[in-house]
Specification:
Layout lengths: L2 H11 L2 H7 L27 H19 L12 E10 H4 L1 E9 L8 E9 L6 E8 L16 E5 L6 E5 L14 H6 L3 E6 L34 H18 L3 E11 L1 H12 L5 E5 L17 H7 L22 H6 L5 E7 L7 H17 L21 E6 L7 H14 L2
Parallel strand pairs: 4-7, 4-8, 8-9, 9-10, 10-11
Antiparallel strand pairs: 1-2, 2-3, 3-7, 5-6
The chain binds beta-D-galactopyranuronic acid (GTR).
Beta-D-galactopyranuronic acid (GTR) binds next to helix 8.
Length: 423
C-alpha cells in the first residue's frame, strides 16, 4: 500500500488524542508559504479603498467560503417565531433581569426549537449592549441559577457509544459558569445571552437528523449537496436567529451585540459574523484550524484532521483540501477580514498548541490590512505578543497561560474590548 494512503488511513482511524500527538509542533518545520491575497480581486486588480472592498472583494471572499468551506445557508425565515417564556427582574441575587425565550427554528410544532437565556443588568436606564454566546451545553450550565429550568442534553452512552438525549440533573446547574463570567459582564453594564448549540443540531456524526438542516431539504433529498451547509453553518444560522430576537427585545441595544464562541463555536462565530453584519463585534476564542489559524502553516490541527474527526462540521467541498492546504484559494486572514470594519477579537492559550496560537495571531495580523482601508487600526504589529499582553485596536489579540478553555482573564479582555469600541 502506498505510504501516503497508509498514513491517511491511520489518521482517519486514529482517535483525536492520537492525531494530536502526531501533529507538527516544531516551528522550524513549518513550511514557507504564500497567502492568497485578500486585497487582490479574483480576475485581477488591487483593492485600494473601502468601497472596492465592500462592493467587490468582500462578496468574492464570502462566496469562496460559502462554496468551498462552510456551505450555503438558507435565507432567514420571513418572520421569527418566538415566545418569551419567563421574565424575572430580580435574578442572580437582584443583579439581573432574566428572560428565557423559546425560538422555533421550523414551521411545525415538532421542529427543533432553541432556548435563549438572557441576563441583562437589572434596573438599566437604557438598552444594554449584549454578548451573545453559543454554549456546548444546556442554558442551565451558564450560572448557578435555580430559576433556569433543567432540560435535556445529548450525551454519549459509555457502554453502547450511542448518543442519546438525557435529562440534565441538579449537578449540571452552573457546570460551565467559569466559562461565562456573567457577574463581571453585568457589573460592566452589559448583558449575556446564551443558547445551546445542541438545540440546533447535536454535534456528532449522524446528529444532522435531529437538527435543522433536514428542514431545508428539497423533496427526496437526504444529504446536503457539496456546497450546502454543514453543522457549523447550521449553528451560525441559529445565532442569527438569536440576533433576530435581540433586535426585538426593548432592553437590548442591538447595535451593540458581540458574538462569542469558543473553539468549534469560535469557528462558528467567525462564519456567522462574516455573513451577518448586524454583529458589532466577533470574538473567536481559541478557534484554531478552520477558524483564525493559518491553514498553510500545517502546525497543530490539519484540514484532514477536521474532516476525518468532524466530517459533519464543514461542507462536502472542503474535503478536497485534505493534505492540500497550499492549494486553498483562501486562508484564515480572508475569513477574519469579512468582519471588517467591525470589532474582531482573536484569542489563544499557550498550552493549546493544537489550535496553533501563532497561526491564530498571524491570521489576525495579516487580516488587519483590510481594517486599514477603513482608516481603522487592526493588530498594528506582526510581532507576536507575550503572555497576557493584548495587542491591537479594532482587531485585538491575546495569548494567555493555560489550556484550551475560556477563563475569567479572557472575559476581562472581551469586556474591555467592548468598552473601548462602544464608548
Ligand atoms: C477539537 C477540534 C478543534 C476544536 C476543538 C473544540 O477536538 O479538533 O478543531 O474545535 O475540538 O471545539 O473543542
Amino acid at each position: 500500500m502506498p505510504k501516503r494512503l497508509l498514513a491517511a488511513l491511520i489518521l482517519c482511524a486514529a482517535p483525536l488524542a492520537g492525531q494530536q500527538a502526531q501533529a507538527l509542533y516544531d516551528e522550524s518545520r513549518v513550511p514557507a508559504y504564500t497567502l492568497p491575497d485578500a486585497l487582490t480581486l479574483t480576475g485581477g486588480g488591487k483593492v485600494r479603498d473601502a468601497k472596492t472592498w465592500t462592493a467587490r472583494r468582500r462578496p468574492q471572499i464570502l462566496a469562496l467560503y460559502r462554496t468551498e468551506v462552510f456551505g450555503r445557508s438558507p435565507a432567514p425565515p420571513a418572520r421569527l417565531n418566538y415566545e418569551v417564556e419567563a421574565v424575572d427582574g430580580g435574578a442572580l441575587g437582584g443583579k439581573a433581569l432574566r428572560k428565557i425565550v423559546t425560538i422555533r427554528l421550523g414551521a411545525k410544532p415538532e421542529d427543533p426549537k432553541m432556548n435563549l437565556l438572557v441576563y441583562l443588568p437589572a434596573g438599566a436606564k437604557k438598552p444594554s449592549g449584549v454578548f451573545l454566546g453559543m454554549s456546548f451545553a444546556g442554558i442551565w450550565t451558564v450560572a448557578n441559577d435555580a430559576g433556569v429550568p433543567l432540560g435535556g442534553q445529548w450525551v454519549r452512552n459509555r457502554e453502547t457509544r450511542v448518543w442519546e438525549k438525557q435529562p440534565a440533573t441538579e449537578k449540571d446547574r452552573g457546570a460551565s459558569a467559569s466559562r461565562w463570567q456573567v457577574e463581571k459582564i453585568l457589573d460592566a453594564g452589559y448583558g449575556l445571552a446564551v443558547f445551546d448549540y445542541g438545540d440546533v443540531e447535536p454535534d456528532f456524526v449522524g446528529g444532522m437528523k435531529y437538527g435543522i438542516r433536514p428542514l431545508f431539504f428539497k423533496p427526496g433529498q437526504t444529504e446536503p449537496a457539496a456546497d450546502e451547509w454543514g453543522a457549523i453553518g447550521a449553528w451560525a444560522w441559529a445565532a442569527s436567529r438569536a440576533m433576530d430576537y435581540l433586535e426585538k427585545d426593548p432592553n437590548v441595544d442591538a447595535r451593540h451585540v458581540a458574538l462569542f464562541g469558543h473553539s468549534r463555536l469560535g469557528k462558528t462565530a467567525l462564519w456567522c459574523g462574516a455573513q451577518d453584519t448586524r454583529f458589532a463585534i466577533v470574538i473567536a476564542n481559541e478557534s484554531g484550524e478552520g477558524g483564525a489559524a493559518i491553514s498553510r502553516r500545517l502546525y497543530g490541527e490539519r484540514t484532514r484532521n477536521l474532516n476525518s474527526s468532524f466530517p459533519h462540521w464543514f461542507d462536502g467541498n472542503f474535503k478536497k483540501y485534505n493534505d492540500r492546504e497550499d492549494q486553498m484559494p483562501f486562508d484564515s486572514p480572508m475569513l477574519l477580514a469579512l468582519t471588517a470594519p467591525r470589532g474582531l477579537y482573536v484569542a489563544s492559550a499557550e498550552e493549546d498548541r493544537w489550535s496553533d496560537p501563532k497561526g491564530e495571531f498571524l491570521g489576525a495580523a495579516n487580516a488587519s490590512a483590510v481594517w486599514a482601508l477603513f482608516g481603522k487600526q487592526g493588530i498594528g504589529t506582526m510581532e507576536m505578543p507575550g503572555l497576557h499582553q493584548p495587542v491591537g485596536q479594532t482587531v485585538r489579540y491575546h495569548i494567555r497561560a493555560g489550556k484550551h478553555d475560556v477563563t475569567a482573564y479572557d472575559w476581562e479582555q472581551y469586556i474591555q474590548f467592548a468598552r473601548d469600541l462602544w464608548k
